[in-house]
Amino acid sequence: MENRNDRKSYYKGLLTGVILCVLMIGVLALSGCFTKTSAASSGSQTTGTGDAVEASGSGSSDDMTDISNRYSEIEQKLNKLHAVLDKYYLDVSDDSDITQDDMVEGIYKGYVDALNEPYTVYYTKDEYEQLQESTSGKYSGIGVVVSQNKETGVITVVRPFEGSPGAEAGILKDDILYKVAGKEVTGVDVTEVVTWIKGEEGSTVSIEVYRPSEDKYLTFEVERKTIEIPMVTSKMLDSNIGYVAVYEFEETTADQFNQAIDELTAQGMKGLIIDLRDNPGGLVNSATAILDRILPKDQLLVYTVDKNDKKQEEYTKDDDTIDVPISVLINGNSASASEIVSGCLQDYGKAKLVGTTSFGKGIVQYVLPLGDGSAIKLTSAKYYTPNGRNIHGTGIDPDEEVRKEYEIRRQADKEEREELLKLRREPDITKDGRKIEIYANIGNMDDLNSVLYYGAAGIGLLRSEFQYLGRENYPRENELFLAYKKIAETMGEKLTVIRTADLGADKQAEYLNIPDETNPIMGNRGIRLCLDRKRMFKAQLRAIFRASAYGNLALMYPMISSEEEMDEIEEIIREVKSGLDEKGILYKHIKTGIMIETPAAVMISRELARRVDFLSLGTNDLSQYTLAMDRQNPLLRKKYNDHHPAVLRMIQMVIEAGHAENRRVCICGELAADTALTEEFLRMGVDCLSVVPACILPVRKALRQVDLSGDDKGA
Questions:
Q1: Are both 6 and 66 inside the same structural domain?
Q2: Pick from 628, 619, 571, 627: nearest CA to 597
Q3: What is the pTM for the complete model shown?
């Protein structure tokens, strides 16, 4: 009781003090009381920062004054919240990992997040240190450039640098970034995501992508290295046309640009193409330095206007000019500083803009250090082209657009999608009336809406690893329970199959302390690791059984290869149920299943089927184990064939073994979404398919076109 009371007093004092402190810091930061600021530097699309400047002017603090007058009200409300939590909140976990820093930083972040403005971000000390990495074109990371769709929040790889760790790992252009270090990135400010990717040299970061060209989710463990990348590349094209590609606007960019121009001029350059496609921006002074080389002296390049209508103008400073015809290439990923350059040249008629409309980021952010190692990045001004254009939200239209083919493709895609959407509420029935249910595979809570939107029969695979990755310690039982409870309540009567944690191999976190293995894909992973760490396993099982009272849940075990493993699991299940019974905690009888992922499991699939209620074929791992090929190895990409006859025969064997024991058999993973195999799987007699939400409708379409009449292999 002493510890509980101590913690009570600690949190009461902590939270009261923190609220008052954060309000004071907010007053100082937003009223311009800091004497020095520094520019944010990032290789992200949303970077729009300028040089270090001296803060001047008092700024308006009316809003902050209003808040300061509410200190007493805030403190009273906080005390009430604390009293309610202390009196009624039941902490059913065995431990608490909340720290003082967590509480403090959480309040700071919440205060800034309340602005609901994507470019204004609070950075902890560690985050700010990462953000401050030099903009010299040298950093520790994986060597890929990413961009973010401003409407969807989706982050896409636009360029992996040749020879970089990311490129060598197999990350490709147009890969969609799904998770970094176990954390979902869609909708997160791309500047922050870049800080997650960067890190100490020699450390590793888990990068999960979706590859549209292959309809696959791929995970890469990439070792961070010191990346030295050229910000500018150049070459001479036919007819003495110089070509200069500018990748980002960093400290060295202007010098590299000038060097390229000097070399091309010496070679007799008669025309110039400046390629700003996929350039996310960067430092404003780098952009203006390049414009200074192109335009004559005393030309207005860009001006900014802050909240107090203070105008700041930038002019060229020397007489150097480029006196050849210039074309500038832009696209939807050309942002920020790229738009300053292209907009300025367009205003003066100095260059023709070719391509598609640019990103449309016409605002500037500055990073203000808060004196304790933390910082706030905030939107401080709008910028305008020389002709007075602010392009925020609209972008810059090129002089010559090459959109015809794109528009044709876009219209075709739109029509196809509209046709597919008509199938959202249609049943999963073949032409001859056979019902083959389509379930969804998900790896996080955010996918729940997609499952319901596309009309899935339920969740055929919940990858529970999302609760274990991208964190510093084990999740508590109650944290697991609340997530499973929410899923169960959201899905209602629809079945949700929770696969127990498949950790190890490419799914690791530092706190797990998994020893280095010669061959981790074949190592201590999945159920093997869970059985070695029974405390972790029991906590997850207790959470699942507790949540079963709120919906229709099922359990599935990964990487099973023997009946002895099932013996251990069943004993642990008995212990878990007994403990819940002793505490009077309600739970339902839930069905159990095995994910068949190894050739060993295939060969004893009939024996395994007798131990559980259903079987699910994990085709991703089954394929690579059968072929003895790492499916993520870029060197094997052309040789890896998951349509191999051996893989398909194993699938057939498991279906027949499961049906012999009157068990349902589902196909899960990438092959389940392969519409070229849909009819073949149905003729094998599969009972259900489980695919990523985006593939539900295409598979449903393929399924509804199959006629199995006369086929004797149905379930």
A1: yes
A2: 619
A3: 0.50
